[in-house]
Design brief:
alpha/beta; Rossmann fold; seven-stranded parallel sheet; 14 helices
Length: 355
């Protein structure tokens, strides 16, 4: 196919800024249309200063006619607000990647419980594909609606997937302690959430066992295990700009050595370009994944207790949002999965020799 024409609905936030950055340098894509009510009639660089001198594109009002000039639209509107745009776009021959949570949950009752409103388009929940490429790449390739996963769920699910798929752990005893950079709280100032004076030199939990990402994580873990999985989930705000770090404590169901567990992970993620499994005694760090689309995973085993700790790290704005959205786009349109993403040339050379 020729150059892919793409657009963004909701172009002024942090994730949209990262997405614009990636799309402008993608070799097979032209960014044609960026909508924003808040930044209407401004140039992109007036809202995202790092784009100065790189593009003269401007923000526009929402128009289905204008969006229809694109083959793919990324919807980056807030949760509960995105669904109307998605439903409107799908009336035309436009593929959609929704970066909000509006189509991640398959059960409309669960959506209503956690997002405090009834879903307006429950029929589309069945149509949406959960956009975690490491689990659903074939379904993503044939989809017209991809629900891009949340940042916490991406780190947690990827850290746990091989263990659930091989039924190596107790799915009722999963404890996740996770830390997010402040960009996860969004660009709109919120007292106690993302203001410098509240977070600098500070570390604190929030939404303890009440975070709306809980049903998303449990949904996908249950599908992997083919039986109900339940988690304890304690998120924290950390005084860093970007990153998600998850420390996951588990009970093994059978006597297993660390070498066998690492082999299980390497086999499960074979030829998945953005998963990096650490050797024994080495563990992920936020600085190793910031500004990349990698998910780094390390394991620690207490052999006497058969207690396993999984560590995973991602960039919340890339693998947790914009980078994963581009990865999904690549699958939907038959591009190389790593195309347009950081270190693409290195990853593509590895893929060519079967690594």
């Amino acid at each position: 196919m020729g150059v892919l024409q793409v657009g963004i609905i909701g172009g002024s936030g942090y994730v949209a800024g990262e997405l614009i950055k990636l799309l402008l340098v993608h070799p097979q894509v032209q960014l044609k249309y960026v909508e924003s009510q808040q930044a209407l009639d401004k140039r992109l660089w007036e809202e995202h200063a790092f784009l100065y001198g790189l593009t003269e594109l401007g923000f526009q009002a929402y128009s289905l006619e204008k969006a229809s000039e694109c083959q793919l639209i990324f919807v980056a509107k807030p949760h509960t607000k995105a669904m109307d745009y998605v439903a409107d776009l799908l009336t035309q021959e436009i593929k959609v990647i929704d970066i909000s949570a509006d189509f991640r949950l398959r059960d409309e009752g669960s959506y209503a419980e956690w997002y405090k409103m009834k879903h307006k388009y429950p029929q589309l929940l069945k149509r949406a594909v959960y956009g975690l490429p490491e689990l659903y790449s074939e379904q993503i390739k044939g989809s017209s609606l991809v629900a891009n996963p949340g940042c916490y769920p991406t780190g947690a699910i990827l850290g746990l997937a091989p263990l659930l798929a091989d039924r190596l752990i107790d799915p009722q005893q999963i404890r996740i302690c996770a830390y997010s950079g402040l960009s996860g709280a969004g660009r709109t100032p919120q007292a106690g959430q993302n203001l410098f004076i509240d977070v600098y030199g500070n570390l604190r939990p929030y939404k303890v066992n009440q975070h709306p990402h809980i049903p998303e994580i449990e949904q996908e873990l249950s599908r992997l295990y083919k039986s109900a999985a339940h988690i304890s989930f304690i998120p924290h705000l950390a005084p860093i700009n970007k990153g998600i770090y998850s420390t996951i404590q588990l009970k093994l169901l059978q006597q297993t050595g660390l070498d066998k567990l690492l082999e299980c992970y390497r086999k499960f993620y074979r030829r998945r370009p953005f998963i990096r499994i650490y050797n024994t005694g080495h563990y992920p760090q936020i600085l190793n994944v910031v500004n990349t689309n990698f998910c780094d995973i390390g394991l620690s085993l207490d052999p006497e207790q058969q207690a396993l700790t999984v560590f995973s790290a991602i960039d919340n704005t890339l693998k947790g949002a914009a980078g994963q959205a581009v990865q999904n786009m690549n699958l939907m349109f038959g591009f190389k999965e790593s195309s347009g993403l950081p270190f693409a040339a290195c990853l593509e050379s590895q893929e060519s020799v079967g690594l």
